[in-house]
Write a structure and sequence with these properties.
It is a single chain. Helix content is 39%, strand content 18%. It is of the alpha/beta class. The strands form five sheets. A seven-stranded parallel beta sheet has the order 13-14-12-15-16-11-17, sandwiched between helices. A six-stranded parallel beta sheet has the order 18-23-22-19-21-20, sandwiched between helices. A five-stranded mixed beta sheet has the order 2-3-1-5-4. Helix 10 links the parallel strand 15 and strand 16 (377-382). Helix 18 (590-596) packs across helix 19 (598-613). The two termini are 61 Å apart. The model is unreliable at 89-102, 565-574 and 616-630 (pLDDT under 50).
Length: 787
């Protein structure tokens, strides 16, 4: 502070206008007050006066001085030693039901929730009672065929299962599908019951809360060099809220590679340490434990946190010292591999265990973690994407936070899939080196890696090449890794040991040789090593042409196609998502998943969990702090004699029409509906009447779901409205409807609304009138003091 104060005072004496631009004004005032400097607020539009010190709300990467104008601007970078530059936030939406129909092609297996598994044959247009409509043509076991109106697309899902086996096609009659669904429902219910039981057991354990944030916590968080993304901030709040409860936390932080999960863990760890408890950070690999140790030391070392690292690179003497420190409580934070779970490690007061990539640990280690979960707080982190339908179901029972927006300024990784050509490698390496960057080169065969190193040195003689693989000792591997981190090595040639956690923002080109021999999730994790700064990153997946099979090509193309940010949640990562689901659900559930398709099974789990929570099946489970969930279940069917579809003349390509049908049918809020409408208009111009009608019908279906409609049939000059649970609709609402329109009448099964003229306008009038009657009924009850 002293040099900064003397610089500011010198400028004041020389008659400079000085403006301090900060987005933390209160902190800035208290820091400046320590050196007796008291800036005044700079009003909007006011001109600074010479020799005066001003404070302005602003956010810049760094300050500047203009001596000839006698003007100086000081930013957070100079004041606090760290700038939190706010860049515009990239909007990222998670997308709708998991099996995107964008990649639904004729010949794919699909599941209709009412009729079972069939084969999708394409979109067809047909005229029904003089009205043209578009249908999905699905073929079942011969000779059965089904034509599903495009506006009921939300009842059709792509068939996915954990294995590659082909499913058995159903018949439309005979009740076979109903039996399969009934069995899967029982499975889902049993699974949900186990989940709820686990949840209740965890709630029964008591521990003292960790207490509110300390001033040190705020100080440490202010040194984070980036601005937190909205979902990252939400995850941080979730963790802190859990630590204030009286029972142990068991939260899973799920986020794409490089989206800031580690920062959430660092803040949670510091909070536990502030409460006088010890923290253990468990990593699947030695390299990842080293990386995390550096990150934690960099963020917490300045706050006096005493930490240790236990892995195979530590000598016996170092290990003994750390063990002694943990037992005596002198070491507050320990990082390491599964060695941390061994019996010989005793903690004085362990409060929090942070587990990175839990799915990479073995069965024994997972069992040890299960026992830990009953007594200490556990925070798990995973980059394996968890599908949204599933996360919705499990959000309350296994506490989960999704970090799903990329850090500001982050660019999508440009991904290339091509045959191996030495010129491509040479050009990619030279281009990265010419901008002062570094390169990851992955070759996953230890026996040939040194030959590849020779080849690389001949191709790019100026590059400094380092080699790293899992069979190297600590003495051999550590200098290579540290050299790469410090920028002394230009190209790190390694096996897939770099798959997890190596965080080097300066390395922005990845080359994978023989990429076809690696699994999709491995390639995806590897690609996450680059693109961790605001520089454009490149990934080259190279294969030797003669050896390439169909599946390998399919995997590589999926990565090229989904190079967008956050594509870990992207729907093309079927095997990743199914694996993510399998890990969350457990092996027992795989059979049921294969029988009815993966997405429908997750929906059944969601229904079973929510039924248990509402007390439909046994005692209700109260979930504190629960937010209102949007119901993504099927909407009521509106069978109207209205041309409501996307004509081929408007959007020619079938896959694009399917995509927008899917966007439309998966919408559950009016805001999202208007976003989809704007996107269609932006891309294809002013929509024709059938498209406008399709959006209008969708809006009414959303309202209908809210009021408990099951189906609206508009044939024969009347709207017949049937309800999901007729008994749940107050008779008073029906009497209000008959008073609102004399010709409306109620039968045992339905409400009948006669009309003449435009069926769309009639349906709109019916839905609006029903909404008014429901509102009036609720006001009456309120006035009468009824709940």
């Amino acid at each position: 502070m002293t040099p900064l104060a003397s610089t500011l005072q010198n400028w004041q004496r020389e008659g400079f206008m000085i403006v301090i631009s900060t987005d933390q004004p209160n902190r800035a005032r208290s820091v400046l007050a320590q050196v007796d400097l008291h800036p005044q607020e700079l009003e909007a539009g006011a001109t600074p006066e010479p020799g005066r010190l001003y404070l302005a709300q602003g956010n810049l990467g760094g300050g500047f001085v203009m001596p000839e104008r006698k003007f100086a601007l000081v930013s957070d970078a100079e004041l606090f030693g760290v700038a939190r530059l706010k860049l515009p936030q990239k909007r990222f939406t998670e997308g709708a039901p998991i099996a995107t129909v964008l990649d639904l092609k004729p010949g794919d297996y699909v599941v209709h929730v009412s009729f079972g598994i069939g084969v999708f044959r394409g979109l067809v247009s047909r005229e029904v009672e003089g009205v043209k409509k578009e249908f999905l043509f699905i073929e079942y076991a011969a000779p059965d065929k089904l034509f599903v109106p495009a506006d009921q697309l939300d009842r059709v899902q792509k068939y996915l299962n954990p294995g590659d086996s082909q499913p058995k096609l159903n018949r439309l009659t005979g009740g076979e599908w109903q039996k399969t669904i009934a069995k899967a429902k029982d499975d889902a219910r049993a699974f949900a019951r186990d989940l709820v039981k686990l949840y209740a057991e965890r709630k029964a354990v008591r521990r003292r809360p960790f207490g509110p944030d300390t001033p040190w916590q705020a100080e440490m968080e202010a040194t984070f060099p980036w601005v937190e993304t909205p979902s990252q901030m939400a995850a941080i709040r979730d963790v802190k809220r859990d630590l204030l409860e009286e029972w142990p936390m068991d939260r899973l932080i799920c986020g794409d590679v490089g989206f800031g999960k580690t920062e959430v863990a660092i803040r949670g760890a510091f909070k536990a340490i502030q409460a006088g408890r010890q923290v253990a950070v468990l990593c699947p690999t030695t390299i990842l434990s080293e990386q995390h140790f550096r990150n934690f030391r960099e963020r917490l070392g300045g706050f006096g946190v005493r930490m240790g690292l236990l892995n195979r690179f530590r000598s016996a003497k170092e290990k003994a010292e750390i063990l002694k420190g943990l037992a005596e409580g002198k070491i507050e934070l320990v990082l390491g591999t599964h060695a941390l779970l061994s019996k010989e490690i005793a903690f004085k007061d362990l409060g929090l265990v942070i587990v990175d990539e839990e799915q990479k640990f073995g069965v024994k280690q997972k069992e040890s973690l299960k026992h830990l979960r009953t007594s200490v707080d556990v925070l798990s982190m995973s980059a394996t994407p968890i599908p949204r339908t599933l996360s919705m179901a499990m959000m309350d029972l296994r506490q989960m936070s999704l970090i799903n927006d990329p850090p500001p300024g982050r660019l999508a990784i440009r991904t290339y899939v091509r045959p191996y050509v030495s010129d491509v490698v040479r050009e990619a390496v030279l281009r990265e080196l010419s901008r002062g960057g570094q390169v990851f080169y992955v070759f996953n065969r230890v026996d040939q890696i040194y030959h590849v190193a020779e080849r690389l040195k001949k191709l790019v003689p100026t590059a400094r090449v380092g080699i790293g693989h899992g069979q190297m000792t600590e003495a051999e591997l550590e200098p290579v890794m540290i050299g790469f981190i410090k920028g002394e090595i230009d190209v790190l040639l390694s096996t897939t040991i770099v798959e997890n956690g190596i965080d080097i923002p300066n390395a922005n080109t990845l080359i994978v040789e023989n990429a076809d021999r690696l699994g999709l999730s491995q390639l995806y994790q590897l690609r996450g090593r680059v693109g961790r700064s605001d520089r454009q990153a490149y990934a080259y997946f190279l294969y030797h042409q003669k050896e390439l099979g169909d599946n390998a090509m399919h995997r590589l193309q999926a990565l090229q196609e989904f190079s967008s940010l956050g594509s870990g949640y992207s729907l093309a990562f079927r095997d990743l998502q199914i694996r993510g689901a399998g890990e969350l659900l457990g092996a027992k559930q795989h059979g049921a998943m294969a029988a009815i398709g993966y997405e429908l099974y997750t929906q059944l789990i969601e229904e079973a969990v929510s039924a248990l929570k509402q007390g439909v099946d046994g005692a209700p489970v109260v979930i504190p702090g629960q937010e209102v969930e949007i119901d993504y279940g099927p909407l009521p069917v509106f069978d109207l004699p209205v041309a409501a579809y996307i004509p081929e003349t408007y959007i020619r390509e079938q896959s694009q029409r399917l995509y927008f049908y899917q966007q439309l049918m998966s919408t559950r809020t009016v805001e999202r509906l208007s976003e989809v409408s704007s996107e269609v208009e932006d891309r294809y111009g002013h929509p024709p009447e059938p498209v406008k009608a399709a959006f209008e019908v969708m809006r009414m279906r959303m309202s209908g779901k809210k009021f408990g409609f099951e189906k609206v049939d508009g044939k024969g000059g009347r709207l017949s409205v049937s309800f999901e649970n007729r008994a749940a609709i107050a008779p008073r609402i029906f009497s209000m409807m008959t008073r609102a329109r004399r010709d409306v009448y109620i039968t045992r099964d339905a409400m009948i609304w006669p009309y003449s003229g435009d069926p769309l306008a009639a349906t709109r009038a019916m839905v609006d009138t029903f909404e008014r009657c429901v509102d009036a009924y609720e006001r009456e009850r309120e006035d009468a003091g009824l709940d």
